[in-house]
What we know:
The complex is a heterodimer. Chain A folds into two domains: 1-31; 52-201, Collagenase (Catalytic Domain) (3-Layer(aba) Sandwich), CATH 3.40.390. By secondary structure, chain A is of the alpha/beta class. Chain A is globular, with a radius of gyration of 20 Å. In chain A, strands 2-1-3-8-4-5 form a six-stranded mixed beta sheet. Chain A has helices at residues 3-31, 64-77, 153-164, 192-201; strands spanning 52-57, 81-82, 86-93, 100-110, 113-116, 118-119, 124-125, 137-145. In chain A, a hairpin with a 4-residue loop joins strand 6 and strand 7. Chain B is α+β, with helices and mostly antiparallel strands. Chain B has helices spanning 2-27, 44-49, 126-132, 199-216; strands at 35-37, 53-71, 77-80, 91-105, 117-121, 147-154, 161-162, 170-172, 179-180. In chain B, strand 2 and strand 3 (77-80) form a beta hairpin. Classes of the chains: A alpha/beta, B alpha+beta. Chains A and B meet through helix 1, strand 3, strand 4, strand 6 and strand 7 of A and helix 1, strand 1, strand 2, strand 5 and helix 3 of B.
Amino acid sequence: MNTRLRNPFRIAVASVRNLLIVVALMITSIFGGIATVANAWQYQGWLWAYSSFYIADYGAGSMWPFMVSAANGYDSSTDLTQGSGGLITAQTNNQGPTGWVGGAAPFSYINGQYYSCVWWPSLVPIFGNCNGYDRKAVRADLYFNTYYPLPEGNYLARHEMGHVFGLAHESCSVYTVMKVPNCGNLPSALQSDEIGFINLYY
Amino acid sequence: MFTLNQRQHRNIKLLAILTLLLVQACARLPINSTAMLVPPPKNMVELTSKADIIVVGEVGEVIQQGYYGGYDAAGKLIPRTGEPDKPGSGIPFTDFGLKIERVLKDDGSIAAGQPVILRMTGHPTEEVRRLNADPQAEYPMTFPGDRHLFLLSKTPDNSAYGLYYGAWSRLIVDGDVVRVSSGAKEPLKFEGSEQLFSPAEFMNSIEQTVQQTSSGSR
Lengths: 202, 218
């Protein structure tokens, strides 16, 4: 076969390969995997930079025992481990009539600078600051506002830590710690949905 | 042949870059907040009962902004002086003055001539203004010049007022129907009801509810 015939074939192969890479990136970046019955997770817009984490009491107050329990839960039920990696802090107190009960504020760290992954008060992702490839979250601050009645602590701590690791809110029909309190019937332990997401990415 | 090959590869690379840009654009589509927002009020009584004052007014200039770590047991604001927008710097807040046009409920402070200050989480920066425009943001930031019907709850330090129900405590009353000030600006409807409210009938209803609850609590 001469080069005239061989080169178009190679170009076609390269095109298909590049297209497949782009499609894979697209699926991973947007959906965090193809949703199935077993994996209905929603991707928050970033990933945690490490396969481990540690927690610190920054005035976690009444939520501290639940933070410890949640950290142990992620450690024992998923491929994430405790002890090193990035720091997750928690602060629990009266933060006033803010319109929100709790929130997670992760940060990426690029060229010596921290960048917030979210903007207040919506706490919606800033996609330029954090993502799943080169701008992963390395640190996170959690806030629990006791001005309002807090949801059950085991659920709440696991929910907010789920955001840190890249999980977004989930519909009420899925039994997961990532559904919102309005849904009711809130799990106090990690479920297959979030475990599946974490074990895929960490 | 070599030149053609190079051109083809350049085109493929360009296609890949364009597709990645499309990915970035698409990646903006699913808006997922990490905030656990306060559930909306079920009815008018629930909405108004959490408000100390209810006014129609315009957001004025920024009076102060900074970071805080909540309020202490005595209700005093705990200021944070960390590096802005960095881990551990605390919760950003902004105090705005409010220019009041109409009072529907007063805890006595308006009658006493005290200024009404709205305290919001966040800072009204140009970047936030750009991000705020997203219709999927559930709880956009306030900016000077915004006009709303505000249902305001006193902060623990008694120096300002906040929005108990977030976007549901900051209603849009400039159109035919009352709308919630979320990014989607959905018409206000209470749980289990399809009833929409015109601004005039909604404000009348608030005044009646306030009157009934205050006479009932006497």
